[in-house]
Prior knowledge:
By secondary structure, the chain is mainly beta. The chain has a single domain, classed as Beta Barrel (Lipocalin), CATH 2.40.128. It is 13% helix and 49% strand. The chain contains one helix and ten strands; from the N terminus they run H-E-E-E-E-E-E-E-E-E-E. The chain has one helix spanning 4-21; strands spanning 30-42, 47-50, 60-64, 69-72, 81-83, 86-90, 93-100, 103-110, 115-122, 125-135. Strands 1, 2, 3, 4, 5, 6, 7, 8, 9 and 10 form a ten-stranded antiparallel beta sheet that branches. Strand 3 (60-64) and strand 4 form a beta hairpin. The longest helix is centred in the N-terminal third of the chain and has 18 residues, at 4-21. It is globular. The N and C termini lie far apart (44 Å).
Amino acid sequence: MLPKTFFVVTTILVAVCGAAQAEDVTGAEKILCAGVEAIVCDTSGECEFGHPWSWNMPEFLEIHLDEKILRTTPGAPRLRETPILTLQRADGQIFLQGVENGRAFSFVVDEVSGVASIAIAADELTISVFAACTPMSTGE
């Protein structure tokens, strides 16, 4: 098991690195997010750090706030689409939640920085993902 200090330092570094690549998404109805780092933990307390795609998560994710849908990009190896059940914008944050295939997900996207914090919970498993987001062009 890694020491807590490593976890805290890694979390801060990921957040700073993600913020450097993310963009302001204020008012955007379509957002493109790229996972930067993922942390997968099971009930034993063991956690693994890595890239989201190491655990079959899409590299890029389109958030269509206007349609309340999460989708993979057209070039993804496996096309996926998931409904957003709860959507709220408040105090410069976008909050998304949903449930599909035995997994619950929750997103918090800071509109000004474009940094997303994502939590996914499944039976005996949790996944945390940090992502950098940018507005999608209106022609998408």
